[in-house]
Amino acid sequence: MCGIAGWVAFERDPGAERSAVQAMTDTMACRGPDAEGVWYGSHVALGHRRLAVIDLAGGTQPMTAEEDGEVAAVISYSGEVYDFAALRNRLRGAGHSFRTDSDTEVVLRAYLEWGTDFTRHLTGMFAFALWDTRSRELLLVRDRLGIKPLYYYPTSDGVLFGSEPKAILAHPEARARLSPAGLRELMTWVNTPGHAIFDGMSQVRPGHLVRVSRGNLTETAYWQLPARPHDDDFDTTVGRVRALLQAAVAGQTVADVPLCSLLSGGLDSSSVAALAAEALRPSGQPPLQCFSVGFAPSGHAAMPVSDGSALTDDADYAAKLAGHIGAHHESIVLDAKLLSDPAARAAVLRARDLPQGLADMDTSLYLLFKAIRQRSTVALSGEGADELFGGYPWFHDEQATRARTFPWMYAAGAGAAQGPAFLDPALPERLSLDEYRADSYADAIAAVPVLPGEPEPDRRMRTVNHLFLTRFLPMLLERKDRMSMAVGLEVRVPFCDHSLVEYVFNVPWSMKSFDGREKSLLRAAMAPDLPESVLTRKKEPYPTIADPAYDQLLKGRLGDLMDDAGAPVRALMDEKSAAKAFDTVRKASPGELRFLRVGFESLIKINDWMRDYQVELAE
Q1: Peptide bond into 62 cis (omega under 30)
Q2: Annotated binding site for ATP
Q3: Which H or E run contains 379?
Q4: Which of 196, 221, 246 is the last residue before a domain boundary?
Q5: Residue 459, in any domain of the structure
Q6: Residue 580 in contact with residue 586, Cβ under 8 Å?
Q7: 566-589: per-residue pLDDT in tens?
Q8: Residues 189 and 293 both lie in one domain
Q9: Cβ count near 283 (within 10 Å)
């Protein structure tokens, strides 16, 4: 998978400041524990940390490509291009020769053959920096759905870039500044494409290419979700969905290292696991290994189990599904002590670079991936199915789909203050959060492609579908990427295959929900492969710990924060409101404490972030 970092400076030589480039590259060690390298050229430095997955011996980076005996292009690459073997054959037919079996070299040669149009030929998840030595131009490219992250930070004479903000912030010219614009984004769930919270920093938007040359930086889209008429009948649509998902899963089982599947026993993960087991069976490999997460009850220590007795519904369903497809299942069981461990929580914050997240669910995901990494290097996951097929309750609530706000904000109300009750209650008004949400929603609606003549119900649901795929899904993909790559685990997401996404996006809502249930079309497509218990199982959210000991441990940390007059987050707090909120937490029963958890855990996380990253508040 890998992590990348680099620096382009047209008025100086980054090679003369190698310590800065090395510091940037070193921050990506968790993403690439197997090897490292830095390539220096005139006005450019490309850093790389490698997680070896394909062509273990030959895929060393940064990688160069030559023309007429001279270096023509250099790449620092993160991700996987799943159709690289077919692309390599095409390029060989066009006269290119290869010295490795890696997909990285295929991407380089594709650029030399097709120029910037090469992005249209790539199928996969990727984020990379490519330096053209002939034109002295840098290209920053991100995959269509934004599965792999890529950030950049323009400077006075060039740009800094990296897989994660920490790579950029390791450079002396970058500062961890939080302006009102960043604070607005941090306090809402609008997830503006390209926004990076830190002042001056941006993300390469999904399906976009950033071009950097002397005195110029531009960003252009090479892919957007298209609106097309859907002419297939129901049976053809069902068959086409299964075929596209089957091809996506099969293509993503290719690896030169151990591969497994995440398995909750729900429809999404079960579909991926079933098709992965099917794809691997002819090769004679050992049974597919599957993993789920569970929680030990209060007073019990955590332990791994493989018989479905992990005290959660997920483990039981997952074990039964594994038996059905001939896979091996193991449940990683966590307890309050593990989830509240300061080292684990610090690792999660360091992985995310921001105080965003889903409380204990981020820590449990990190610990799950850490345990999986001891057995496997690549994992398949079901991310994207809910957003694509309509799995969330909001899709089936007409008031939510007609509300003039993001559907996931509807339940709380568009004007509800986001963030913990401990913060200054005047912040939402001072930052104009209501206006910010309204403007963000208007921008998101304006980006929805229009199909002329589409009936109103289908047009409305296309809009909802687009909002989830372009605003909500990227948050989950970033979370999955950061938690997995923090331990050097590559997670692949077959439901985000762009051919599958394009097809299903254009299926009318009446066909996607033909029987009134969530993800009806996916259930129909996977009916031949899954047991009835999975097909009829109601969607359940990612599990969260219910042990009161976890909340008590966090309450202790909150008390320490409230006693610390120098806590950085106090710059955002109102003392009177904070004291009242803390009194509520202090007096809460165990059940009430769990309900309050997200608010006060968020405060702790913001404080840790401001302290550890030395965040400057800018007016």
Answers
A1: yes
A2: 262, 293, 381-382
A3: strand 378-380
A4: 221
A5: no
A6: no
A7: 999 999 999 899 999 999 999 999
A8: no
A9: 7
